[in-house]
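Good morning C.,

I know you're traveling, so I'll keep this short. The sequence:
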Amino acid sequence: MKLLPILFAALFLASVHAWNWNNYTGLSSWHVSVTEDDSGCGGSATTSQMTMPIEHNGNSATVTDPHGTIGGTFASGNVLHIPGRTINDPPGSSVLSAYDIFFTTDCSAFAARYTWDYSGPDGACSGSTRLAGTNSQGCPQVVQPTRPPEASVDDQLSAAQNDLRADMQLRSDLRFLKLQDLLFGDSDAAAMAGKQSQIDQLDASAEAKYKAILDNDPNNYQANIAMAQLRKSQGLPHEYYQYMDRAINSGQFTEEAKAAAEKNLAKQMGLSTIPKAANSLLMKTMSAEKSNWQGGLYGMDVPKESQKDWNWKVFFTDGPWKYVINTATYK
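The tokens, ready to paste straight into the viewer:
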């Protein structure tokens, strides 16, 4: 019965101290005992000390071993594979074998060994190098990146409004330059092109910010009003009316204010009222025809039951302009 607490304790300690170097980015420094075995070359085994830095970059790392600097990749979480290479070894050269550096999971030590084959005018021989590294600093402290706090809706609206105000001012400046050119022939093409470029950038910036707000809250009154203003300045009246309609029906108006806003919007369209099924024969007829529809669409045999949603729009055309008067969805 005493085995279970011991087993749980062992598992707990393993989970606390386990470390994978292939997840780390940064520098580690190791005190290394280097044992060079030159007995095959007429010498003997000697041991020296060195500091060995390792620059970690996730799944790869660069090490400076006794024979130079070389990059390697992690074969697993704590096994770094170093490829073989050839180095200058006056008066000849040496071919170093590939090798693996084995790190302990508590970051306290590593071990590695590789062989080398020397050849030169003074002959040829072979030997090996053994590395035993220690680290008294323990595993690095990894600072988890923190997500910056999301801006509040008020902050988002403020940032978007700054773009819109600058946009409107530039449009006013551009209209003045165009008027000046029209009246006096005093054209400054570079200035006009520069302001248009700024307007295009602010248009895109403001639109992105307002649409980010509307993605989370499609009925946001201020964002819909602002988008309506932007679309109107861009010469897109049909989208202007769409955003105005959303603003009017956003729930921010009293019934009296809503009726006044709809009347004003209808007046801008050149109408006495916004057409709906209750006050428009056309809208009422279309609604009845949809209700009585039995399938088929422009000569196509489309079963009625296959149509879950129907969307349609009524347009009023006056010269080149196309205004959206009303939209409806039927289920």
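Safe travels,
E.
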